[in-house]
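Hi support team,

I'm filing this because I wasn't sure whether my run with adenosine monophosphate finished correctly. The job status page said complete, but I'd like someone to confirm that the output block is well-formed before I use it downstream. Pasting the exact inputs I used:
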Amino acid sequence: MVSSTKAVGVHDHPCFNFDNSFARSLEGFFVSCQAEPAVAPKMLQFNHALAEELGLDPVALDSDAGLAIFSGNTTPEGSEPLAQAYAGHQFGGFSPQLGDGRALLLGEVIDTQQRRRDIQLKGSGRTPFSRGGDGKSALGPVLREYLVAEAMHALGIPTTRALAAVTTGEDVYRESVLPGAILTRVAESHIRIGTFQYGAARGDSDKVRKLADYAIARHYPDTAEAENPYLAFFAAVADAQAALVARWMNIGFIHGVMNTDNTTISGETIDYGPCAFMDRYAPSTVFSSIDQHGRYAYANQPEILTWNLARLAETLIPFVDSNKERAIELLTETIECIQPLYESHWLAGMRSKIGLSTEDPLDLKLINDLLSVMEKGNADFTTVFRRLSQALRGDNDTVRNLFAEPSAFDVWTQRWQKRLEQDGVLAETNAQAMDRVNPIYIPRNHKVEEALAAAVNQGDMTPFSELLAVLNHPFDEVAGNEAYAAPAPITNRPYQTFCGT
Ligand code: AMP
Ligand code: MG
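And here is everything the job wrote out:
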């Protein structure tokens, strides 16, 4: 219920109306457990708009009662907290048991669009899956996930969301002593490719089938009607993931840890650990300190997409056909369609980025040539695309000046202009459409670091709040916000990110 419809004084009891289908349906895929109490919790950030979308009362939740829930100190009515089990290929190596080592699913709610959404605490203490870990999160990574998830949402990219960030009042021990924090994360579900691998690794085919049936009903109900529902389910996940990775590539996003346990069945981006946006266009860019061989480099993401989906396919073999050979053949055919599918999503995204509304066989080359001119010219990915609309408005220099060697860009521009004439769309109409797909504000790495450092070192949330406000409207240019649009100052040290633990 929206708060404004309520009378003053009736906001005291936050009510989630949980309906916990995962707990009801998928025994064997979770362990019930409780959050560890937080000694001195404090609310740092609360997402009113998301609370409303979830059908929750933002006023009731942005309160001491809400803080008690988001810090793990109170289990809200109807919640059945549990840690989910999953396995996963991490950097290519298989771990048969990972699971929520520092997360707890509080339960599911039905949002105002009738979508089922998970409410999860991340950083709420040890679970049976914690292995050697402390089950906690440090403030920096919690705020990073909050910022980037909300930025991705505003960019129109499927993602888990951030409902609240609280500090626990406790220290967590990493390379240094850091303030502890908890993120409340919202997802269409937290089922991962690794969840299927968990069941399959135990040889429990009934359980995997139950999981598949559950995922079909929850995420892809239409596939239940298909001639071969499990094959159709696989194709639907593949399409959602192909579309997702295409969006990442269209926007210059590098996930950083595309392990199968970080690949959702819903097609949402999940687990913002060492993720970052690329500034200068360089396809081999890797930010993550632990990705020494560049497995999850920007340009490798589409290939990893297929690799990860092949791991999902392996778990579905028994259900696709009783004849194993035939099942493998059918799944392989679908796997072979993933790259072309990805490319068509990517190309559609790129066409709209350069203002094309029709299809021409030469578009792929036109777009790849722009990327190659950008790479050679050391140009900023986000800024080039954004400023192309200025060229349509008659100001070519603002984009041209971004290239170290503008002559190659000039040649490209002539080809581009010719191609635009073919479409015959009014320049201003086109420029406006381009400004709705090419953001001006993305989470620039130095700006994110600045906001996190102020919060963690000085307890100052102002830079965070200001950055979040800008990122909530990534396509709308605002005078005075130039610093948020600029790439990081060039330094000798490459930007590095660290796993969000
Ligand atoms: P992630 O890097 O978030 O994808 O996590 C990989 C695995 O490590 C998951 O099973 C996590 O639950 C687990 N994990 C990460 N950090 C911690 C921690 N501080 N305590 C316990 N488990 C953790
Ligand atoms: Mg993970």
